[in-house]
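User: Can you predict the 3D structure for this chain?
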Amino acid sequence: MSDVAEMRRTEPRPPCDAAPRRLRVLVCAFAVSPIGGSEPGLGWNVVSRLARWHDVTVLCSPGMPGERDFRREIADQLRAEPIPGLTFHFVPPPLLSRMLQRETLMRRRTVYYLGYRSWHRAALAAARSLHAKAPFDLVHQLNITGYREPGDLWRLPIPFVWGPIDGASDLGWSFFSIMGWGERLFYATRNVTNALQKRAPLRARRAAHRASHIWAIGGTNTEMVRRHWDREAESVIESGAKPVTGSARSFDGTRPLRLVWNGLHIGRKALPILFHALRDLDGGHEVVVLGEGPATRSWKRMAERLGIADRVRWTGFIPHAEAMAELERADALVHTSLLEGTPAVVLEALTRGIPVICHDGCGMGVAVTERSGIKVPLRDPETSIAGFREAIDRLAHEAELVERLSGGALARARALSWDAMSERIARRYTDVVEQRQAFVERTIGFG
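Assistant: Here is the predicted structure, written as structure tokens:
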């Protein structure tokens, strides 16, 4: 009996004559859930939409050992809203995977990938069985997005695409001064390990050379693919914006700016950069700081020392609806984070027409453009402080800048929607398969 559990929904509607041929696509997505964010949310939001254009079969895990039940969450959603052309095959985690992938901090940082690697070997066996019964046109390694583990489906004798991939960004050594000693040790270790893994002849390099197309999150990951794997990659983000809910807003300069900062209070989120920028600004601009964390107490003391405590309001952890209400009242979102993918709060701001001030790095450097916000070079604390200070000052004093960037934010949110992302991926599938077919025909012709 097969060790692959299958969930199938209704047959797809036949495409119109003018539409491209519906391809049979195999997607490897370890984490998929219609109610989860992050990796599970990426998996669901992409594969559920790809079925509009192609017949999609998804290889995924039935859940995280001891934690998430992806199978049940997917089944509940499909019972409520069947998706034609979408099939799930759940690959049970092998024993090693179940042992090593439990969500504990120490295990996640040391042996998580050993368990994940074990699951991918089982996924390859399942893929070969499925492909032998009814061949696929293309295979896509979708998630988990880290570049260290490309899976094994690139070994199948069909076109392979990979991404979005992430994980190549380091935390700049010059920023260690604004973090605690524990975080310094962690990111120093990570930086060194990353430098070795990006250069080593890993399986990832072989998968990259097998790939017909690669998507990478932001400039650093794109550059890593080019420099260390000698391949080109398309720069993207790994999240999609929700439907636009806001309208263009304005600011006439007759009152202080209302700024919002949102995030977990840890060193790499770098709130001190904003505090130092505010210290040297006139105008009494107000900042609402959402969230809390290990650094909350020291950051509050810093605000006192810098003489800006009366301009900062701390909310602590509050319900999402209340946090979004705070965001709605803001003239701009200030996002000082140094290292992450594409923050959900950045996309939330864009969908509400709120300009974003952020570093020009990671996924946020792709999501935010010159028409939807102001990006600051990610070099060192001094450059960041000066850049955020100048950006805030521009919003306060340049006529109609807030209104212009607000309109751009709404347009950018529409371009970054899950629908738009999935359509681009679906078109890329068609391009890759057509290019492969044309190559085969030319080869046969010359033979």
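The chain has two domains: 5-239+418-446, 258-415. Confidence is low (pLDDT under 50) at residues 1-5, 9-17.
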